[in-house]
Amino acid sequence: PYPHMLAPLDLGYTQLKNRVLMGSMHTGLEEEKGGFEKLAAFYRERAEGGVGLIVTGGISPNFRGRLAPHASQLSFPWQVSKHKIVTDAVHEADGKICMQILHAGRYGYHPFSQAPSAIKAPITPFKPWAMASWQVKRTIAAYTRAARLAKQAGYDGVEVMGSEGYLINQFICSRTNKRTDEWGGSFENRCRLALDIVKGIRAKVGNDFIIIFRLSMLDLVDKGSTWDEVVQLAKWLERAGVTIINTGIGWHEARIPTIVTSVPRGAFAWVTEKLKSEVNVPLVATNRINTPEVAENIISSGQADMVSMARPFLADADLVNKAAAGQSELINTCIGCNQACLDHTFSLKRATCLVNPRACYETELNFTPTTQAKRLAVVGAGPAGMAFAVYAAQRGHNVVVFEARGEVGGQFNLARKIPGKEEFDETIRYFDRQFANLGIELRLNTRFTPELLNDEKFDEIIMATGVVPRMVKVPGFDSSNVVTYQQVLRGEVEVGQKVALIGAGGIGFDMAHFLCESESSTLNPSAWFKQWGVDTAYQNRGGLAVVKDSEAATAHQSRQVYLLQRKTSKIGKGLGKTSGWVHRSVIKQHGVITKTGVSYDKYDEQGLHITVDDKPEVLDVDTVVLCAGQESNRELESALQATGVPVHLIGGVDVAAELDAKRAIRQGAELAASI
Ligand code: SF4
Predict the structure, then answer these.
(1) Would the CB of 121 count as within 6 Å of ligand 1?
(2) How many CA atoms lie within 13 A of 579 on its CB side?
(3) Ligand 1 atom closest to residue 290's alpha carbon, by position in its atom list
(4) How far is CA 426 from CA 149, 392, 401, 417, in A?
(5) For residue 23, which of 46, 3, 7, 1 has the smallest C-alpha distance?
(6) Residue 620 — pLDDT band, cuts 50, 70, 90?
(7) Is the CB–ligand 1 distance for residue 335 below 6 Å?
(8) DSSP structural state of residue 21
(9) What pLDDT sits at residue 426?
(10) Residue 534 gets which letter from DSSP?
(11) Global confidence as pTM
(12) Under 8 Å CB-to-CB from 490, ≥6 apart: which residues?
């Protein structure tokens, strides 16, 4: 299987065992006490899982380049031994690892950040200091020193982060580089920093050391590079001595999504492909490559020599080995949700994975074989129940799962119906195949009742019955035109052309998207590029299409949707840090009208009567959809407690404050590890 993806890649003095690069991700362990031991365990498992080349999270070459005040840095010989713990672990597992050197430039989240010019980034509160010429030279020296120390620490190479809008990228583009000295002005001058860094590193580390350069091939911001400039820089980099060129897509401040789940799979491989005929060094394609099938297609069609997958290795350390063994059905696929990885990183929490709570907890959350196999009943096959069942069965317990509906998945079965959330299918597939693989008995269309215990014996019962939508008591809400989000997503009710959504949390946003977008642009890349204004002909700087406002506004207006919330806070405030802005943009594209601080007065034949700022108004709507949260489905609890068999509550039935699959899966896993 996957002959192109699994083919070795010869780099001259060394060989990679396959074409899969584990892309750079910050885990948060870098800064934790004892974190390098945990990092070593994390990377060791990925190396054992067969990945061809690992790239670490970004390490700053100096103090000024740190992403945050306490972010990691490699500048001094005494720091080498910590890194050695990581490189030794990877080499013992027959893997290869490069250290990414990342200078944040104006993205540094501290008052000491430096950049080519003193222009604040729209995504940070700190205005950077403009670098003096001697400081630029000192920064180059810091890069070469970091690379030399990385070699001493046993790394097989370094990756120079030149994209996503970080320092080097800030020098390359006139958007952020207003200098008039030898580091600014002409394109050649703006590229000098990138090239001097690469030449400096190559001179220091010799030829038997990998230098990857992550090149911003599509900036997706105003005043980004032109395609000709990208090609020119790639050629100069090749001449300067890079071993591999990795693809960077979009600055962090770009307002076009590049990695969230609604980005089509492999959407940006065409950019890497465009560069293929221009240079001879191997090229790596990136962004939303999450299955071996997508990877194989990209490599076999000649779009790139390698693929980078980052988050997919949080979701499943064994991705490559499973693919090689013909077991890709058993891969726990990254669904691009960002909820436990990037959203954690941006809130300075340790990264992990929604679908794999063990990620970055390799030394803390383990599923060791049990010495006392129990017979366990799991009631409900939503995310919490499925996760518990799989981990408990892996430990050797005998697990029977009862599900009242005809399918597993719970709330994930609803989520997957939202345009742009198709990836949730993969998690359901994963658990479903693991059930079969582990011999978990699944009884669909079966309600668990206490009477069942008269005929069958269970040592413990795990209640994972999930949630039911919260009803809102307002006069007239007993009308058949007032429905729940679950009824809508299950196709049980008709929804009219004028709709009010009660509740503007994650579900309200999803519902707005569902009602406004009849076809998912995620499954139709050309529609998606048009929707977001990506110029695939690459005629403009940064790859931005010129979108006429009138075109954007009339894109989809088949339904009039109002998104309402009681709270006076900004709409969508509670959405994920890295994906919330995408959801807010989507509802704007669809012309959804939002209102906050709403009180609901009544519903009648005129529509929905509300009061906002003491002013009453009537929304002429034919359907009201309740998206106002949920309550634990505890119907069975007291009856089960009365049986005397120990009962555990996990997932939404335990806490239903918000739909929280991350918490549900972790809770299922932790109970399975300890039961
Ligand atoms: Fe992928 Fe979500 Fe896991 Fe992040 S948390 S690795 S996006 S599945």
Answers:
(1) no
(2) 22
(3) 1
(4) 41, 21, 20, 13
(5) 46
(6) very high
(7) yes
(8) E
(9) 97
(10) B
(11) 0.95
(12) 414
Rounded to whole angstroms, how far apart are CA atoms 419 and 249? Answer: 23
Q: Is 314 in the pocket of ligand 1 (CB under 6 A)?
A: yes
Q: What is the pLDDT of residues 13-63, one digit of tens each?
A: 999 999 999 999 999 998 888 899 999 999 999 999 999 999 999 999 999
Percent of the chain with pLDDT over 90: 89
CA–CA dist 193, 143 (Å, integer): 11
CA 75 → CA 61, 137, 495, 542, distances in Å? Answer: 6, 15, 61, 33
Least confident segment among 49-58, 535-544, 566-575, 595-604? 566-575
Residues annotated as catalytic (active site), given as ranges = 166
Q: Where are the alpha helices (DSSP H) in 51-182?
A: 80-92, 133-152, 167-172
The answer to ipTM > 0.90 is yes
Q: Sign of the C-alpha dihedral, residues 288, 39, 246, 138?
A: positive
Looking at residue 549, what is its pLDDT?
57
Atom of ligand 1 nearest to the CA of 338: 7
> Could you tell me the CA-to-CA distances from 518 to 522, 527, 554 in Å, in that order?
12, 13, 15
| Contact (CB, 8 A) for 660 and 387 | no
Q: Please state, in angstroms and rounded to a whole number, the distance separating the CA atoms of residues 133 and 198.
A: 18
Residue 524's alpha-carbon distances to 268, 419, 521, 553, in angstroms, are: 13, 11, 5, 20
**Kindly report the CA angle at 253 between 247 and 256, in degrees rounded to 5?**
70
Q: Write the pLDDT tens digit of every residue in 186-237.
A: 999 999 999 999 999 999 999 999 999 999 999 999 999 999 999 999 999 9
Average pLDDT in the chain: 95
- With a 6 A CB cut-off, is 341 part of the ligand 1 pocket? yes
The pLDDT value given to residue 471: 86
Whether the pLDDT of residue 558 is over 80: the answer is no
Alpha carbons 587 and 338: distance in angstroms, whole number: 20
Compute the distance between CA of residue 469 and CA of residue 477 in angstroms, rounded to an integer. Answer: 14
Tell which atom from ligand 1 comes closest to the C-alpha of 333: 8
489-530 pLDDT per residue, tens: 999 999 999 999 999 999 999 999 999 988 899 999 999 999
| Rounded distance between C-alpha atoms, residue 298 and residue 308, angstroms | 11
* Nearest residue by C-alpha to atom 8 in ligand 1: 334
Please answer whether residues 489 and 483 qualify as being in contact, where contact means their C-beta atoms are separated by less than 8 angstroms.
no
Separation of alpha carbons 141 and 110, rounded Å: 22
The phi and psi torsions of 667 (rounded to 5 degrees) equal -65, -40
Model pLDDT, residue 659: 67
DSSP string covering 450-470: TTHHHH---SEEEE---EEEP
Q: Is the dihedral of CA 92, 95, 101, 102 positive or negative?
A: negative
Residue to mutate (ligand 1; options 308, 311, 663; most atoms within 8 A of CB): 311
**86-101 pLDDT per residue, tens:** 999 999 999 999 999 9
Tokens of 5: 């993806």
What whole-number distance in Å separates Cα of residue 59 and Cα of residue 73?
5
Q: Which residue has the tokens 């994963």?
A: 430
